[in-house]
Amino acid sequence: MALLGALLATANAGASEFAGSYLGAKIGTNNSEISGTGATSDKSTTTYGLEGGHGWDKGNFLLGVDGFYDTNRQVAHTAPADYGSKVYGLGLKLGLPMEKLMPYAKLGYARVSGTGTASSFGSSGVHGGLGLEYKFAPSWSVVGEWTAVAPSENGSKLKNNNLTLGLNYYFGAPKAAPVAPAPKPEPVVVKEEPKVVVAPAPAPVVVEPAPAPAPVVVEPAPEPKPQPKESWKTILTEKPVRLDGANFATDSAKLLKTADARLNEVVEAAAKYTEVKLAVSGHTDNVGKKAHNQTLSENRAAAVKAWLVKHGVAADRIVTAGYADEQPVADNKTKEGRAANRRVEVRYVIREETKVRVTE
Fold first, then answer.
1. Are residues 281 and 166 part of one domain?
2. Cα–chain-centroid distance for residue 226?
3. Is the peptide bond preceding residue 80 cis, with omega within 30 degrees of 0?
4. Is residue 158 predicted with pLDDT exceeding 50?
5. Quick one: average pLDDT of 144-153?
6. Which of 40, 184, 293, 353 could form a disulfide with 324 if both were Cys (CB 3.0 to 4.6 A apart)?
């Protein structure tokens, strides 16, 4: 326990594919034997089981609780003649997630009851096991596991070893939202001031000469210069927010805590500009299969939408889309370029209250 505490205290924080609640079923082979009753023999038979639990990320490790129920078919032994067993219990689970793969160990306590000619046997003991789990879909995983328990009662020991293959379902995995077209920006409204109409210059006035010695001629007044035409325009500004690949678990749609600061900017803008529509788009580099990249880009966009809705943004104000590697912003031939292309963008258009005076 001291070693486990030291490992969890020094590990770097991270998110895994295996955190959360799950429920599963398993099937495999059981090897059992009752010792201390004289003539004994170990036999193998079929075993079935159910299990469920919950796991929490603790640094680079996963720590969880696991409950289980196994039932083993009756099979003929040397003595007693024909028996099986039922095992149920609760234990701790310690795993080491490595993206979609996780080796783990179990340790707990179980109750073992004999069936058939061993129905009088009923005792409890330490239950342990080792396993390997693979996440092949956002909500599904396949598990290979070995477990063992050997409780004693009245000088007899019932040994149970199970080797099983199982299927687990994880609750609450992100799902891709329907792809909707990006919203069109609102039209620019131009407010024009009344135009200034320049009246024609008056005709020159000629004063007839008086009987004075010399006639007096009055020059015409200079024509006024034409006034410039002015109008007012309201400015529309696009506000993009970009989340790079470091904001997600590797090859996953699960958001990391590093994304919170950028997404809080979007939440604040949505609260300030209540008429704004948000367009969330997911993008990848060109590494990997096209279909996988398309699904990953859609799932990451959907994960961002789910985060925004959870923090108060109405779902009908958000549309999502996935574009895989179709819209790169950098060269996919370099490591830096591919990192820039692995991103999610949140774009929205706001109407600035400040108006700009335009002179034609």
1. no
2. 63
3. yes
4. yes
5. 92
6. 293
Q: pTM here?
A: 0.48
- 126 burial (CB, 10 Å; 0-12 / 13-18 / 19+) is middle
278 and 182 Cβ atoms separated by less than 8 Å: no
In which residue are the tokens 């131009």 written? 190
Backbone angles phi, psi at 279, to 5 degrees: -110, 115
CA 191 from chain center: how many Å? Answer: 45
Strand-pairing partners, residue 198, are none
In the chain, pLDDT over 70 holds for what percent of residues? Answer: 74
Cβ(142)–Cβ(133) below 8 Å: yes
What interhelical angle do 290-310 and 260-272 show, nearest 10?
60
Is the predicted pLDDT of residue 218 greater than 90, yes or no? Answer: no
275 plus 158 within the same structural domain: no
In a domain, 207, yes or no: no
DSSP string for 269-332: HHHH-TT--EEEEEE--S-S-HHHHHHHHHHHHHHHHHHHHHTT--GGGEEEEE-TTSS-SS-T
Structural domain includes residue 313: yes
**Whether the predicted pLDDT of 341 surpasses 80:** yes
Closest by alpha carbon to 166, among 106, 112, 252? 106
pLDDT at 3 over 70: no
116 & 256 share domain: no
